[in-house]
Design goal:
This protein has helices spanning 3-19, 21-52, 55-59, 67-71, 83-106, 122-130, 168-182, 193-198, 219-230, 232-239, 256-259, 310-321, 340-352, 358-361, 374-387, 404-466, 471-502, 507-525, 533-544, 548-567, 570-597, 604-612, 618-628, 630-634, 637-647, 739-793, 797-805, 809-812, 819-848; strands spanning 110-116, 150-154, 160-165, 247-251, 278-285, 295-299, 324-331, 362-368, 394-397. It is an alpha/beta fold. A nine-stranded mixed β-sheet has the order 4-3-5-2-6-1-7-8-9, sandwiched between helices. It has a domain at 487-800. InterPro entries: P-loop_NTPase (IPR027417). This is Dynamin family protein.
């Protein structure tokens, strides 16, 4: 079998796995939001059920509108959990599956877990596959070997282990506390090292705590506590180090005490029990029989030993850390090949593999006893296959009980080719099955949660509309509320109307226009994009030697860009002006409606609109929609007003600029300074360019005809400075003068024209934008009046305010409403909010898992 081809196939499958990481991360993010919302909705349902339990509250629900909510908490006919408990359990199961998928797609390796009972041959198999020797992975005759979880990585040239240590608190919570509970001790574990050192445990056989007084189930756990206590000095220095997650590097020859139990349960005094301080171990060594570094062997402790909550840890490791499981089973004469404990391990594997078929996830490694005859060995293998036929799990014969050389050969020739072939063929399909299952599970549970949220929300809304909870008094209060809101909103409107009457500008827009104008003028005075004006003149005069027209076009393009950059920001001031009006109106509403109806956040009016949409209130809904859509309706101020002005900033020498109204016209620019002295190496007027200078490169031939410099040449857009791009056809010198004189004259003409045009554009933009700012005041005042009039003056709007405020009547009118009915009203309001959050979160999760995966192929044991 071509092992390199199989390993390449496995690498391709792992690369395909990485493609799914963004999808799973997105699902995970939306799932957290959804489950938080669901938990809050469950709390709201329980509160509502408690409120409706009172006689007064039940009298306030004559139409049984809330019966559908209570039904979710009604126990099943068979005494089982109610509907909401079942849905909550389904969500927890889906969350566990999501965690397993997240762990899987985040791995860049294929993790092969190895499990086996005492003396089954697990350590022998791991030694043969990894190349480690018995000092690192010892085999014990009668006792379990593996004390710490370990990952064995193929890293050519390395021989070390990365050991992650526990803290003392982790040791207490993860090790001592479970052992105390399993040992049936009445008190919890000691909380500090000194208390643990002196704690008195029952001693088996000492008369006071004889085995007869102790259950057979609890006794092994007690023994482990005593072992941990008597060996405390061995590992306490490791627990008392820097902090959580600390890692140390241990050479392989020193690793055994961190990884394995001593050779005898009552012996081994010379071997320190350092494994108590270990959270997990990553071994790095050179695998002798594979080349790919993507394969990791996971040594799973606990199968068949008494100790910690073996089943829980074993199941979690299988679910989150293992892609494929090898179950090592030794077959001996006169013994059942597969016992109850073996089937229990396979059952745990079946629970852990999720949506991956067990036939893909697990494989049994049959290790026949070396003492068996060939016929007996075949019987053992056939018995093994028959025992696991129900699970459709493949069985592979691999004799591990002989010499180290024979075990090594068996793993190399009989086991590894089968494992690699299986992973090459099925790993990608296993990943796909997990993702398919995640999509199915998430879709199903969110669909149920959305139905639940919709059902309880509909019941609550029906209750709000149908119960006559002191309707007359509530309507009277709503009438007064409408008058009070008219007073508050009228103050805001009158403020803006006064600005119109006084001819005032919107201060935000006025300030933005003035600041933009000043920035452009500073840009002009500072030499445009140069360090100062002298540098600009020098650079531009040099460019005028051969590209006068392109130079002029480039700078006018740059001026248009600068004007757009600076004055385009005026639109943001319009946003601020509109947002200020929205905030003023929201503040005015909040004084009467409270934060419960108009929250203090970035979008208070949108929150109010969302609440209004849940009740029959068409007038308020239309008023809020129109008012909150004001910014969209107004459009871009700069595009409408400023852009036409900027487009007129062009290189049209000699044109007459239109007049700007005197009150906004910009002051005339200062006269241009006299040309600076020519730089060293430049030709002065009437002189030949110095040999080797830049100007000498473009010296015209003797028979060249004089021409006019500065001929216009179009430029598409501002790009690299034209001085850095040689012109293939340079302009000849000016008639009657040298290069320097012609270039200087062209530069001065360009400077004057550019400054004049930009200053004129700035003045015109100031005038038009200030004029538009006056228009904007009238727009805001009109919008304020329209909202004020619609929300408080439309006939019948008082009834709409009553419907909107009913759910929050206790906070709006404290002291007016109390008792069971009022508490129920508040509980219904909370329920509606939580149901809406669940609907939002569930919809987002469902959308994230909506796309189907590509087609898949069928594996062994599948139809």
């Amino acid at each position: 079998m071509d092992r390199s081809r199989l390993e390449a196939s496995i690498s391709r499958a792992l690369a395909g796995r990485a493609v799914h990481r963004p999808l799973v991360a997105e699902i995970d993010r939306y799932w957290d939001i959804f489950t938080d919302s669901f938990t809050e909705l469950v709390d709201a349902v329980d509160r509502l059920v408690a409120e409706t339990a009172g006689a007064g509250a039940r009298g306030a629900d004559p139409d049984q509108a809330l019966a559908a909510v209570e039904a979710w908490r009604r126990p099943a006919a068979d005494g089982g959990p109610d509907r909401l408990e079942r849905l909550t359990a389904q969500i927890r199961q889906t969350e566990a599956h999501l965690g397993a998928v997240r762990s899987r797609v985040d791995r860049d390796t294929v993790n092969v877990g190895v499990v086996g009972r005492t003396r089954a041959g697990k350590s022998t198999l791991l030694r043969a596959a990894s190349g480690l020797d018995g000092t690192v992975l010892p085999s014990h005759e009668n006792n379990p070997t593996t004390a710490s979880r370990s990952w064995i990585h193929h890293r050519p040239g390395q021989a070390e282990a990365l050991v992650t240590l526990r803290t003392w608190d982790e040791f207490v919570e993860q090790y001592l506390a479970p052992l105390h509970a399993s040992a049936q001790l009445p008190a919890g574990p000691p909380r500090d090292p000194q208390s643990f050192r002196v704690h008195v445990y029952p001693q088996p056989g000492d008369g006071g705590g004889a085995p007869d007084d102790y259950s057979a189930v609890a006794l092994p756990y007690l023994r482990k506590l005593i072992q941990a206590q008597t060996s405390l000095d061995d590992y306490l220095p490791l627990l008392a180090r820097r902090g959580p997650g600390e890692r140390i590097v241990v050479p392989l020859k020193e690793l055994a005490p961190y990884l394995s139990y001593p050779s005898g349960e009552d012996g081994g005094a010379a071997t320190p029990r350092l494994y108590h301080a270990v959270r997990d171990i990553h071994v790095r060594c050179d695998f002798p029989h594979v080349d790919t570094t993507a394969m990791v062997l996971v040594d799973l402790p606990g199968a068949g030993e008494a100790g910690l909550d073996v089943q829980q840890h074993f199941l979690r490791d299988l679910t989150h850390e293992v892609d494929f499981l090898l179950h090592v089973k030794r077959g001996a004469a006169n013994s059942a090949f597969f016992g109850q404990e073996d089937y229990a391990d396979l059952h745990l594997a079946q629970l852990a593999c999720g949506d991956v078929p067990l036939s893909d996830f697990a494989m049994v490694v049959a290790n026949p006893d070396v003492s068996l005859s060939p016929e007996a060995a075949r019987n053992v293998l056939e018995t093994a296959r028959a025992a696991v036929a129900h699970y459709e799990v493949r069985t592979v014969e691999c004799p591990l009980g002989g010499t180290p050389e024979s075990a090594d050969a068996a793993v190399r020739e009989l086991l590894l080719p089968v494992v690699l072939g299986h992973l090459a063929d099925r790993l990608a399909e296993m990943d796909r099955a997990m993702l398919d299952g995640l999509r199915r599970r998430v879709s199903e549970v969110t669909r149920e949660a959305l139905l639940f949220a919709a059902e309880v929300a509909a019941s609550a809304e029906r209750w709000q509309l149908g119960v006559p909870d002191e309707a007359d008094r509530l309507q009277t209060l709503a009438d007064r509320l409408c008058d009070d809101l008219a007073d508050e909103l009228g103050v805001v409107y009158e403020e803006y109307d006064g600005m119109v009457a006084r001819g005032e500008h919107i201060p935000q827009i006025e300030a933005a226009v003035d600041e933009a104008a000043e920035r452009v003028r500073d840009w002009v005075r500072g030499g445009f994009d140069s360090a100062d004006e002298d540098e600009w003149r020098s650079r531009t005069r040099n460019g005028m030697f051969w590209r006068a027209g392109a130079m002029a076009d480039w700078w006018f393009n740059r001026a248009r860009t600068k004007l757009t950059e600076e004055f385009g920001g005026v639109d943001a001031s319009v946003d601020r002006a509109v947002a200020l009006l929205w905030q003023r109106m929201a503040d005015a509403l909040r004084t009467r409606l409270t934060e419960a109806v108009v929250p203090v956040d970035d979008r208070p009016l949108e929150a109010l609109l969302h609440r209004v949409e849940r009740v029959p209130a068409p007038v308020l809904k239309k008023a809020l929609e129109d008012f909150t859509g004001l910014r969209t309706d107004y459009g871009s101020l700069f595009l409408r007003v400023g852009s036409p002005v900027v487009q007129e900033v062009r290189n049209l020498t000699g044109r007459t600029l239109p007049q700007i109204p005197a009150q906004t016209q910009a002051p005339a620019p200062a006269p241009a300074p006299a040309p600076a002295e020519a730089h060293a190496g430049q030709a002065k007027a009437g002189e030949e360019p110095p040999p080797g200078s830049r100007a000498s490169w473009f010296k015209p031939p003797a028979d060249a005809q004089p021409g006019q410099p500065g001929q216009p040449r179009p430029a598409a857009h501002p790009g690299p400075h034209p001085a850095s791009e040689p012109d293939p056809q340079p302009a000849p010198p000016a008639a009657g003068g040298g290069y320097a004189a012609g270039a200087t004259a062209d530069m001065e003409q360009l400077h004057h024209h550019l400054v004049t045009t930009v200053e004129h554009a700035v003045g015109e933009l100031e005038h038009k934008l200030h004029t538009e700012a006056l228009t904007m005041v009238r727009v805001l005042a009109a919008a304020a009046f329209q909202f004020f009039a619609a929300a408080t003056g439309t006939p019948g709007v008082e009834r709409e305010w009553r419907r909107v405020c009913r759910a929050e009547q206790r906070s709006i009118w404290p002291g007016e409403f109390d008792g069971a009915e009022a508490a129920l009203s508040e509980a219904v309001s909370v329920l509606l909010k939580r149901a809406d959050d669940v609907r939002t979160g569930g919809t987002e999760v469902a959308a994230a898992v909506g796309a189907p995966l590509p087609g898949r192929k069928t594996g062994p044991g599948q139809g």
